[in-house]
User: Fold this.
Amino acid sequence: AQSVTQLDSQVPVFEEAPVELRCNYSSSVSVYLFWYVQYPNQGLQLLLKYLSGSTLVKGINGFEAEFNKSQTSFHLRKPSVHISDTAEYFCAVSDLSGGYQKVTFGTGTKLQVIP
Amino acid sequence: GAVVSQHPSRVICKSGTSVKIECRSLDFQATTMFWYRQFPKQSLMLMATSNEGSKATYEQGVEKDKFLINHASLTLSTLTVTSAHPEDSSFYICSAFDSRTDTQYFGPGTRLTVL
Assistant:
């Protein structure tokens, strides 16, 4: 079984300041890791993913995340946020089970960018 | 990234009626699609896994007879909410698994309101 923990339900940050959204996971097997963003009343958009290779992953909109196996973490970072980054962010983990991919989501972190 | 569409985006129906929601992968074929339900200010809850040409796999606690899933082609899965009741009102999101990139891509969601 796998699980994802996003400890921060809300993160307020001033515009142009840096931000880090935390994500920790647990799994008994190797996993893939994802960050998705959800704007109000919309579906989820993939920000970035870690499947293998370099532990520092760069995504869209200037976001990046680092996979840390020893700490079982996959924190999301952005050096300078914009008002348009205000949204809910979901960390997710998956493994390949039975030939398909089943994803477990964290509870989400609402990023509020303050002008 | 790959594109997944959902139709309709919003539907209002009377209690006791059935509602069909379509999920399409527009630029790739998906043998596996997923249906999620999202309650206000909560994360996504996996309802079922839809496999092309075979029966869907439902998560524990999800009524198979109430939420009918059909995955008739490699680009289309449908979710039918039968005999809908007000407690079925929710945001339903589908996703399609792209085996070329080992990634799930999400539709924009369908807001169902049952009066």
